[in-house]
Amino acid sequence: MKLNNASEQLKRLTSDVSDSKEALQRASRALNELTGYDQIDAVKQKVNNQATLFETTRDQVQAAKRAYEDAIETRSTTQRGINELLQRKHLWTGDDVTKFTELYRLEHAHSQAETVAKEKYQACEKQMDREYMELARSIMERYHEEQLWSDKIRSVSTYGTWALMVVNLLLFVAVQTVFEPRKRKRLTDRFEELLVAKVDEEEQKFKGVFEALDEK
Description:
The protein is an all-alpha fold. It contains four helices and no strands. It folds into two domains: 1-35; 36-213, Helix Hairpins, CATH 1.10.287. It is rod-shaped and about 175 Å long. It starts with a helix and ends with a helix. The longest helix is centred in the last third of the chain and has 122 residues, at 94-215. The chain has helices at residues 2-16, 20-35, 37-87, 94-215.
């Protein structure tokens, strides 16, 4: 099926393509389809897409990590403020009570934000691991397809070499059994013709000499 499709594409190159560059591109695609290299191109594209996706996920992990670290720092700052107030609890003023209440409320909000940031960071890490495994699988698939294609081309090359040797052998046999005898026969016939002509010429000379002697 692939062979027929590739052949049809090659036939259409001279019928509906006026641009030589487009013709070369079509011929290249048809050749890739004929040899099976189009599958390798598809796998290569899959690897490139997966690599891009992995890099995007890795960037998301870095951003989530920074957000998580910032959330930890914010909560730690709030916690330090609360601890400082608790250490001088016996000296609190009205403003200290208000500040403690506000810090306690913020500490609760910051704790929740830290938990959310941590969960997002962990989720991004897991997603990055999945994308990495998928990238590794696609690379192995590409390697496998390239090995199969290389073995196929090597096999075709081997068959082509044997076919060329057989053709050369047949040509040699044909030359020795058909063409050489004919050539030798033509040379022999030509030699015989020349020999007969030479003999006739000599006979004519001798005949002329004998006739001249008879006249005397």
